[in-house]
Design brief:
The complex is a heterotrimer. Helices cover 40% and strands 19% of the residues of chain B. By secondary structure, chain B is α/β, with parallel strands linked by helices. Chain B has 2 domains: 133 residues, Rossmann fold (3-Layer(aba) Sandwich), CATH 3.40.50; 189 residues, Rossmann fold. In chain B, helix 3 runs parallel beside helix 4 and helix 5 runs antiparallel to helix 10. The radius of gyration of chain B is 22 Å and the shape is globular. Chain C is an all-alpha fold. Chain C is globular. The chains are: A mainly alpha, B alpha/beta, C mainly alpha.
């Protein structure tokens, strides 16, 4: 009996959708075993991790709050992914976006006006885009891998944040703690839209997902991005500039990360050292889980948010350590990355005796 | 195995619908549910460990009248909000948030749950259902400073700080003033490592201070790593937040222990009998919130006596390390002779006393 | 500025540098084979807790170091299977490995908080190890000596042996190497596992020498500095050794500046420096057209044989 992998002519669409689902189920099973092994109530822990956030209506708000920044950043990253441009430094651009908005907040703290919030958003997105432009220029001018350069700049952004909130932007009423002053009501978006409990970020995420869908599938630009990724030489022959794509995708993902940063800043109402939550890194996972497709990314963002919220619930109810949520996210990603194989290859079994010459 | 799914679903629904009922039926028979959120892990042998110890003392003292829950490793960002909400919805009527960075989150959730009482540790913003509480740790630092002043042969103390916030500033100030009272030539070299917890960096910083002549190390960071280095190098140090002698039996002279039990017990009692009010409380040595742990056997008797004198002074109310004259690093007189720095000024202090060398 | 003081400062620098040098050396070999493994921080932490736990439970530090190595190699093998055999994206898998390592080590480590072990001492007799002058040579933990010997051995291996040539070939042009008959995938497996083992040892340095206790995420981002260091060194072992010590000097400088009251720059500037310098060096070495110091051509690309 022989077992081998045969490359599919075309990636399987069924598998594309099925593998994440199967992975989630597989990891849930694994989770029950792991938790039981560690002495916790396995089934309940997994229930709290995966199902409570989905079934408990009160938890939807938390899931939405967590999913929104992940989706927004991941949408931007997906564009780059398709062109095989890897923006690992989205966390840094996210922080810069918040810094930009906080800067506007600092300057306008005694002012009011409808223009303040849009300005904060605009400046935040520009700061994110600018910060992503640095790896872009390093790549196009110096051939430096954007993976490494954008990553290094995350650390620089953390130091910049620390400097600003312990120095020039420190809250004068903050008892000298490292934080900025709270944003005023003129500078804050409402916590939720009306009484629905839906955070504005989720609405932005929805709109952004729709926009990206249109861009990717219906515009020449979207086509060029995919082309550069899949067949770079042919794409260049067709007139698409790969340098242009590098700039465009990096700056777009930077702007999206910056946008997420601004929205999250408004949720937290001030900048402090606890602000960097790692959304920029988790969004990379979201974009890959969602197979770099806007709809997939939207769903993947929800799934990951569920594991975050679930991790918190598991902590309060089952007293599982909070390292668990991260561990599960990693296992989930491993499972999906591994099962990716099934999308590109088909498993073939032949019961005939092995014959090196014969091919199926 | 399917039973828990229904039970859980029922729990979720009833949690949502029972809120108005809980407030009405606060009978004495029903134990008071008390929740805690912790910054670090309960086994950290430092800040969180001490809070958890207080929680256990609460359980021991009030027995069946209370039921406590805790969540550890709660980050000081927006994710604290859902956790606080969960604790409130699970029926906890008294919730302690044990770190400064939970300030905004506590206030936000407190607005949504007016019948739940919140206590924010080391904070300064209050509401009708939000109290703040703190300890006069600097009193403990006056004790360790006295010991350091007597023990140090080089006259140089190494002090590891985290961030330049009032709590840390008042701590190093108290320490230095007390040391100078014993040896006016004492110099404190202060290094801020911009983190509460980074054992490798704490070790390297301690090494650096020792290399620059410090023979006693004090810290305002959370890990026992500096003490481990002190032990290796043959210098002395103090435990921070808990008795850390098992990490450095020779080097550990004593420790400042955070004793939160009395406060938690008092506030739980107040919540039960209805006398709980929003307030700002700062307990110290007198109230038993700050304890100096057992002295190292090798500490000479005269040093122990000097330290005990400070403790007795605080208990009797006759001693305050922040009594003038106090000069700042530039030599300006900040507190006149005979006057004292009040808690209000201490809570926002941002200047160091003379004799502290800071970067 | 006495001799004792100079030696003390050097000891500090060596202590800070060693874990980064170790982790970067391992990753150098991995990247030379054409694979980029971003999971260094995760692999280090797995080694940190493994070394600490085993040493605590058995009282035998050498057993602890061995298990730390195996733990690191094991974590790396998960990555290798996904990336080399299942064709998964290297960047994503590496990041997932980091998250995995952080989570797993925290979970296991929760049983070991508040415990201390004895630090691993110098392998030389105390008379030499503690002597006021000779301690600069003989007073270090085995990790320090191992790190220096390792990086030199790696340099010799890569540049002067046939096996090293094959490794480089696999990293520069995997298809050609494959057509000559070299087992590309097997070689990459070996390189990745090796990198993981060394990362595990690097992690153990934290919990067994520097500060013999366990605390979550106690490597505090040194894994990322190690990644930067490989780039900074232009993927060359000799420059790696120099670069690591350069980083160590920078970090020690920050502390000395603060401790002597002369910090001049805000401390955040010091903390950002290693990363900024790494980027500048990246730009400088990449814009040169020479093959010297460029990344292995196949770095990050999956191996897809045509035949």
């Amino acid at each position: 009996m022989r077992l081998w992998l045969e490359k599919r002519l075309e990636p399987s669409r069924t598998m594309l959708v099925l593998t994440p689902v199967l992975s989630v189920i597989a990891i849930m099973m694994l989770g029950i075993i792991i938790f039981d092994g560690l002495g916790y109530d396995g089934p309940q822990a997994v229930w709290e991790l995966f199902f409570t956030p989905v079934l408990d209506v009160y938890k939807w708000r938390d899931v939405a709050s967590k999913a929104a920044p992940l989706i927004i950043i991941a949408l931007g990253l997906s564009l780059g992914n398709q062109a095989k441009i890897w923006n690992i430094g989205a966390e840094g651009q996210y922080i810069l976006g918040a810094i930009g908005a906080a800067g506007v907040g600092f300057v306008t703290q005694s002012m009011t006006g409808f223009w303040i919030i849009p300005l904060m958003i605009l400046v935040g997105m520009m700061c994110g885009a600018f910060y992503a432009a640095i790896p872009a220029v390093l790549r196009t001018r110096y051939g430096v891998s954007e993976v490494l350069s954008s990553l290094m700049f995350v650390y620089v952004s953390l130091q910049l944040l620390s400097y600003l909130i312990t120095g020039p932007w420190k809250d004068p009423d903050g008892h000298n703690f490292p934080q900025t002053a709270q944003l005023t009501t003129a500078q804050l978006l409402p916590r939720e839209l009306g009484d629905s409990g839906i955070p504005p970020g989720l609405l932005v995420a929805l709109i952004a997902a729709a926009l990206f869908y249109i861009i990717v599938s219906r515009t020449v630009f979207g086509f060029s991005v995919r082309a550069i990724g899949e067949a770079p030489h042919a794409a260049r022959y067709g007139g698409f500039s790969s340098n242009g794509i590098v700039w465009a995708t990096l700056m777009i993902s930077g702007a999206m990360a910056g946008l997420a940063g601004v929205l999250e800043l408004m949720q937290l109402t001030r900048l402090n050292l606890g602000y960097p939550s790692g959304y920029g890194f988790t969004a990379i996972i979201v974009s890959l889980l969602g197979r770099s497709h806007p709809i997939g990314v939207f769903i993947a963002g929800i799934v990951l948010a569920v594991t975050y919220v679930g991790g918190q619930v598991a902590q309060t109810v089952v007293h599982v350590p909070n390292a668990t949520a991260g561990l599960f996210q990693a296992l989930l990603l491993f499972a999906i990355l591994a099962s990716d194989l099934l999308v590109r290859y088909r498993i073939r079994i032949s019961l005939a005796s092995s014959n090196k010459g014969a091919r199926g | 195995m399917t039973k828990f799914t229904r039970r859980d679903f029922i729990k979720a629904v009833s949690a949502a619908s029972a809120l108005p009922l809980i407030g009405a039926s606060a009978q004495a028979a029903e134990p008071l549910k008390v929740g805690f959120i912790f910054l670090g892990p309960v086994g950290d042998y430092g800040w969180t460990w001490a809070h958890n110890k207080g929680r256990l003392e609460l359980e021991a003292a009030l027995g069946g009248a209370v039921k406590t829950t805790y969540v550890e490793n709660v980050k000081e960002d927006a994710s604290a909000v859902p956790i606080l909400r969960d604790l409130a919805r699970q029926g906890n009527k008294l919730i302690f948030a044990t770190s400064f960075g939970y300030m905004d989150q506590v206030l936000e959730v407190a607005k949504e749950f007016p019948d739940v009482k919140f206590e924010h540790c080391t904070g300064f913003k209050r509401a009708a259902n939000v109290s703040t509480y703190n300890s006069r740790f600097h009193e403990g630092r006056a004790v360790t400073g006295t010991i350091a002043g007597k023990v140090s042969k080089s006259g140089v103390i190494g002090y590891l700080g985290s961030f330049k916030i009032p709590e840390v500033v008042m701590g190093v100030n108290a320490f230095t003033l007390a040391a100078q009272a014993v040896n006016p030539k004492i110099q404190t070299k202060l290094v801020m490592i911009d983190s509460w917890f980074d054992p490798a960096k704490e070790t390297a910083a301690t090494e650096t201070l020792a290399n620059l002549g410090a023979d006693v190390i004090a810290t305002h960071t959370d890990s026992p790593a500096p003490l481990q280095y002190a032990q290796k190098k043959g210098v002395f140090g103090f435990g921070q937040g808990a008795d850390m002698s098992k990490f450095a039996p020779k080097a550990h002279l004593t420790a400042i222990e955070d004793i939160w039990g009395p406060h938690y017990i008092a506030r739980a009692k107040a919540a039960i009998d209805g006398s709980w009010k929003s307030e700002d409380s700062w307990d110290g040595i007198k109230e038993g919130a700050v304890k100096v742990s057992a002295y190292n056997a090798s500490l000479p008797q005269d040093v122990q006596d000097a330290a005990n004198k400070i403790i007795e002074g605080y208990k009797a109310g006759s001693y305050d390390v922040f009594t003038g004259p106090i000069y700042d690093q530039a030599g300006t007189l900040k507190v006149k002779a005979g006057e004292k720095l009040g808690l209000g000024d201490l809570a926002t202090i941002d200047w160091y006393v003379k004799g502290i060398q800071s970067a | 500025m006495t001799l004792t003081f100079i030696i003390d400062v050097l000891v500090t620098i060596i202590g800070i540098t060693t874990p980064i040098l170790l982790a970067a050396s391992g990753e150098l070999v991995v990247e030379k084979s054409g694979v980029i493994n971003l999971g260094v921080e995760g692999m280090m932490l797995v080694g940190t807790i493994a070394g600490f736990a085993v040493t605590f439970e058995t009282g035998n530090p050498w057993l602890g170091i061995l298990v730390a190595m195996l733990a690191g190699a094991g974590a790396a093998t998960i990555f290798a299977v996904l990336v080399l055999s299942l064709g998964a994206n290297q960047v994503a898998t590496g990041l997932a490995l980091t998250i995995f390592g952080i989570g797993l080590s925290s979970l296991i480590g929760s049983n070991y908080v508040g415990i201390a072990i004895d630090p691993v001492e110098s392998p030389f007799p105390p008379a030499l190890a503690n002597e006021s002058f000779w301690r600069i040579i003989f007073g270090h933990s085995p990790f320090v000596y191992f790190a220096i010997i390792l990086v030199l051995a790696i340099g010799w291996f890569i540049n002067k042996t046939r096996a090293g040539l094959v490794l480089r070939a696999v990293g520069e042009n995997d298809l050609s190497a494959h057509s000559i008959g070299y087992p590309v995938i097997a070689i990459r497996y070996a390189a990745v596992a090796f990198g993981g083992a060394i990362a595990g040892i690097a992690g153990a340095d934290f919990s067994m020498v520097i500060s013999p206790l366990w605390a979550e995420q106690m490597t505090a981002g040194r894994g990322w500095i190690a990644l930067a260091l490989v780039v900074f060194a232009g993927w060359r072992a000799g420059r790696l050794l120099a670069g690591a010590y350069f980083f160590g000097v920078l970090m020690a400088l920050e502390l000395y500046a603060k401790a002597s009251g002369h910090a001049i720059f805000p401390s955040q500037f010091w903390a950002a420096m290693p990363y900024l310098i790494a980027v500048i060096v990246l730009a400088l070495i990449s814009s040169r057209d020479g093959k010297d110091g460029k990344a292995p051509a196949c770095l990050g690309k999956p191996f897809i044989p045509n035949g």
